[in-house]
Amino acid sequence: MTKPLKTLVLEAAKALFLTHGYDAVGMREISRAVGRQPVQIYRLNLSKADILAEVIIDLNDEQIRQLPDLCAKVTGTTLIDKVCSYFRELYALDIQHLPIRSVGAAYGWTWNKAYEERIVGQVMQLLQPVITWMAEAGINQTEARCYGIWSVYYVGFRRAAIHGGNADDCIGEIQPTLEILLAK
């Protein structure tokens, strides 16, 4: 069974972005990778930034499907230990897709409202274990805190994106701030 053109485009774009980086890949390279003319790709009504958003949504969906396995790997008894352990697992996954993840924030402002809403919904799904642990610890205002926690997560990710750090480096960058955000 032949895959739809959009699926082929997203798969090719993901591979090209991972190999060459987002900025080095144009619509011509993507169309060439799927054996089509650029005009056929444009007929999908997807800009290069839209393709990036779709690829990131797919990556997020992959992580969401992995939530049971990720949570099974969580260690620690305190709230901060659990959150750091969970984020260490997420960082490891994100670092595997560094050329894509590192440009997501830079181009996110170009995405339409539907992409933004979908990605925020995915973020809240990815934060669901943290929300559960916060509730178990008696922490209130979880939604507001989660927006702050996710922002801090991306601050930590900069350690990998800019300075070549690993998941432990990312955690080291944000742990003091996480402790404040997770305090009663």
Question: How would you concisely characterize the structure shown here?
Answer:
This protein has about 180 residues and is mainly α.
Describe the protein's architecture and organization:
The chain contains eleven helices and no strands. The chain is mainly α. Helix 4 (48-65) packs across helix 7 (98-107) and helix 10 packs antiparallel against helix 11 (167-181). The model has no long low-confidence stretch (mean pLDDT 94).
Order of helices and strands: HHHHHHHHHHH
Structural class: mainly alpha
The major β-sheet equals: none
Number of strands: 0
Amino-to-carboxy terminus distance: 54 Å
What would you call the shape? Answer: elongated
**SS element count, helices:** 11
Strand content: under 5%
Mean pLDDT: 94
Portion of residues in helices? Answer: over 70%
Radius of gyration: 18 Å
Task: List the topology elements.
Elements: H1 5-20, H2 27-33, H3 38-42, H4 48-65, H5 67-72, H6 79-96, H7 98-107, H8 113-126, H9 128-136, H10 142-163, H11 167-181
Helix pairs in contact: 1-2, 1-4, 4-7, 4-8, 6-9, 6-10, 6-11, 7-10, 10-11
